[in-house]
Every structure is written in C-alpha cells, then in structure tokens.
Design brief:
20% helix; Dihydroorotate dehydrogenase B (pyrk subunit), domain 3; single chain; two-stranded antiparallel sheet; alpha+beta
Length: 41
C-alpha cells in the first residue's frame, strides 16, 4: 500500500513493535521478526 506522506508526519505507516510504535518510512522498512511478532523468539 502507498504511504501518505513518507516523512512520518501522518503516522499511516506506524507499526506496533516490542519497543513501541515505529514508523516504517523512517525506522524501516526492515524490522526483525522478533521485534514485530511477539510470539517469535
């Protein structure tokens, strides 16, 4: 899906991680599986 702003201002790309909500456009787009999925270790 398309990101609305690509800068992190609109928060449409925010995902829940083990370290809180992170922005895919600024902190990603690659995250470890352990960070995104709590049940994966």
């Amino acid at each position: 899906r398309r990101m609305a702003c690509g800068l992190g201002a609109c928060l449409s790309c925010a995902v829940d991680t083990s370290s809180g909500r992170r922005k895919v456009c600024k902190d990603g787009p690659v995250f470890s599986a352990e960070e995104v999925y709590e049940h994966v270790s």
